[in-house]
Amino acid sequence: MEHEIRKMLEGNAGPVGTLARAALWLPGKLYGGVMSLRRHGYERGVFRQYRSPVPVVSVGNVTAGGSGKTPFVLMLARLLANAGQRPAILLRGYRQTAAGESDEALLYNKQLPDVPVLVGSDRARSAEAAVQNGATVLVMDDGMQHLRLHRTLDIVLVDAASPWGGGNTFPGGLLREPLSALRVAGAVVVTRSDQAPPERVAAIRSRLAVLAPNARIFTARHAPVRLQDIAGTALDLSALNGREVIALSGIARPEAFAATVASCGGQVVRSVSLPDHADIPPDVIASCLAEAVQRGGVVVTTEKDEGKIRRFLGAPPRAGFPHGVWGHSGRETSEDSGEGHNSNVIRSGDAAALWVLGVDQEVGDFPEFRNVVLGRLFP
Q1: Which residues contact 358 (CB under 8 A, 6 or more apart)?
Q2: pTM of the prediction?
Q3: Per-residue pLDDT for 339 more than 60?
């Protein structure tokens, strides 16, 4: 349902969607006005901001989800660490588990074990804690609308597939605030630029030059760089070439993930998508695996979804799988054969067909991007 609503608000859902957007036009404009007043209030000192003693860089966007913030934050944290800094990531933490984990936090901790990740809605408090523990620079994930923490640099990501959010703010479109907010950006990155025609990317850049006059504008792509099975065994990306794939994800833009899989040579026969940040239940995983194994293919999911899947399935080790939702290796159990089939049970032999594709953000003219980031944060 979430993906259908996104299409409607972007103006891609036919006559019914057009009527719905028309009905929501005024509420969207009213919400946009409130968000503009809120931003002006912070800029003019009506609302108090917390100023950290160390530089703060915000990675955000003006539209709802799907611009690639997670791989971008990973890339940015590595850039700062390689420059001799001690970065910490400040994360809101949507849909946390009882243990206080979110899908982004799990991925950051896995990919950047030496970078502290502080999860909490009060970013100012997280900033204080990070500095007390030795951080020399703070990276605020999804921070553009979190104005209580003053930032040294705003990096705004714009998805080439849907740059303007349907032209209206919630609930009449996908904008979180009016496009005029782009004026605060010090850098704007057009993501997934490889999945859009060159003339479209050029048009986006031209409009951004007007909307964000003080920003340097870059392009980036989601580059597939890692492939492994769910047990953690590394695979070569070429293993996807010519193979039938069911793309399984709980992200904002599943169609973009399917396109990334296809760029590796995978033949995406079906895309199974859940709402952004949503859990992927065992019965959905089992159903996808059963179909993939029958086809002689594989299920491919994202690194963001990997942590959620492993939680459901007992985090299988590299060799051998625990009992529970996983069946016995190499043979069917009474639960996964015949009548009374339990769709929550997955044979460990089938589990080998569950793969995880990792992507990195590759920024064009990376040396210049690095100079802009370090020059703004550490003048």
Answers
A1: 224, 225, 226, 227, 228, 303
A2: 0.87
A3: no
